Amino acid sequence: MKWKVYPEYKDSGVEWLGEIPAGWELMRVKRIFSITNGSTPDTGRPEFWDGDIAWITPDDLGSLEGNTITSSIRRITDAGYRSCATTLAPTNSIVLSTRAPIGHLAIAGIPLCTNQGCRSLAPRRDNYAKFFYYQLLIARPELQAWGQGSTFTELSASKLGSVQVACPPLDEQRAIAVFLDREAARIDAMIAKKEQLIALLEEKRTALISQAVTNGLDPNVPMKDSGQESLGPVPAHWKVVRLKLISRIRYGLGEPPREAIDGLPLIRATNVKRGRIVENGMLRVDPSDVPYERDPILRTNDIVVVRSGAYTGDSSIIPPEYDGAVTGYDMVVRANGPLPKFIAYALLSVPVLNHQIDLLRTRAAQPHINAEELGNCVLPLPPPDEQQAIVSFLDESTSRIETLVLKNKEVIDKLREYRTALISAAVTGKIDVRNGATT
Predict the structure, then answer these.
(1) Residue 56 pairs with which residues in a beta bridge?
(2) Within its chain, how far is the Cα of 178 from the centroid?
(3) Can you give the CATH number for the domain in which 32 is found?
């Protein structure tokens, strides 16, 4: 799709804006918005908390879905509001996180205040907040570059006010915002459909694994009662064993070694995703700081099991490329006799592990499983030749599913890139969308 362009441009003199339409102005944020700071009431005074006033923090902005914020994790009372230096921002203000991290933002759907990690931008007369919301969204790298501080990076009110933005006439601000609302919603809907498809593929993968490791590949094989409600019937010639009898289970490191750019990979719970080791966010640690006497080194075919948190019980086998990595807080299962990959698939199945640790998950506010409890989990164990056949079947079947998942994730990435590029082009005037027309 090729959009129209403006008939005439001028150099803005601002690198991230580049050329802007000749009829647009260049303004500093403080000329367009009234900037107010946030603050925090005394957390030791209960009468200041659990009131009716929304009190926004960077966490609220970071977890927001959509572009309008109407609620907060914590709320304050009128007494709490009056006790500190926070300021109530009117509806349609832009709320921006200015530390930890800089750049989360939203439109205020109600009057609200913030903590000191955010600032509110109330538009002055004759400006349309939604347009500048989109422009500041694209300007996030610029805002981050203006941050200063040694303990933590913060964007001060004066620095924020000095940031230059492109300011079209009011009617164009509205037209561009309406266009972007419509186009962003259309792209988001396509992304949502792809995400739904990925979820269905993941469900199919889990169902295939669960069926194969508890019932085998022969639909006509005689069955027997496993003696475990969570497992149900299993093939009559299979064994039913506790994990601790066929493996060694140990804990990883509690405190991670010092970080080092070229060090050993540190595999934590955030790197374990339903049978896969995910590199995104993986830390590397200094080999000289590793306490080797605690046997922290992972070997190919070890299985890492998440020990606590929302993904308690999630697991992944260690592929060859992570042989020699270091394990973090979680547990490591090393098979004694059975095929390690069969155990890895079994731990991913719903009947084998998920159902058995559900009761453990509900015993406390923070889900948790220890080595003894993991070792007592029961799984069906076929003869070695069937283990290999099931692993080969699941390798092939799940590989096809993972290929489809990957393709859909690539489409999502491209859609998000297009969404960002379209917003950038519209709010900097590289395309003329006033009439929503194309050439």
Answers:
(1) 114
(2) 28
(3) 3.90.220.20
